[in-house]
Amino acid sequence: MKTLVEHLSQYAAYHRDPRNIATHFVGIPLIVLAVTVLLSRPGWDVAGMWLSPALLAAGASVWFYLRLDRRFGLVMGLLLGLCLWVGQVLAMQSTALWLGAGLGAFVVGWIIQFVGHYYEGRKPAFVDDVSGLIIGPLFVVAEAGFMLGLCPDLKRAVEANAGPVALRQKKAAL
Predict the structure, then answer these.
(1) Is residue 169 part of a domain?
(2) Fewer CB atoms inside 10 A, N or C side of the chain?
(3) How many other β-carbons are positioned within 10 Å of the β-carbon of residue 158?
(4) Angle at CA 37, nearest 5°, toward 33 and 39?
(5) In a domain, 167, yes or no
């Protein structure tokens, strides 16, 4: 299994333009929320806990994140827990509301992602490695931590492998 630094570095190599990173702060949470909402049906209330495919997917994801890093795994668990709560609330609404919210967030999230990759001038990481789909949310959390001055050693290691965040200069076509 790759290390946290290896996963984040590989993903970061596709995300060096600050505009692309900024779009990921909106697009990825929308997509994660959308998937959680859509997987919240079918669901069953068992002893006050909503059992659904979303819970299984979130549990497997948190297990993966915890194996990479305990601190990040706990943060991801908290965030996925919030998504599960929203998913449960929407799953108990009408089908139109549940499906509209889930599909709407999914489509808008991906549009925002592709706008970011237009700025980057590079395809999304998951095109070359499907693990980018699970690393994307972790990347956003790590970038938020870096912006807050947390985990400076991790930031240095990721940037040593992927390069620093900087605007790319695109040559004008003649």
Answers:
(1) no
(2) C
(3) 26
(4) 120
(5) no
Nearest to 68 by CA among 132, 131, 3: 3
pLDDT value of position 153? 96
Neighbouring C-beta atoms of residue 102, cutoff 10 Å: 22
pLDDT band at 7 (very low <50, low <70, confident <90, very high): very high
Q: CA dihedral defined by 31, 16, 131, 157, rounded to 10 degrees?
A: -130
The distance from CA 96 to its chain's CA centroid, rounded to whole angstroms, is 26
> Cβ(136)–Cβ(112) under 8 Å?
no
State how many domains the chain has.
Answer: 1
User: Is 170 a member of any domain?
Assistant: no
Contact 38, 91 (CB under 8 A): no
* Domain span including residue 103: 4-162
Give the CA-trace dihedral at 39, 62, 78, 57, to 10 degrees.
10
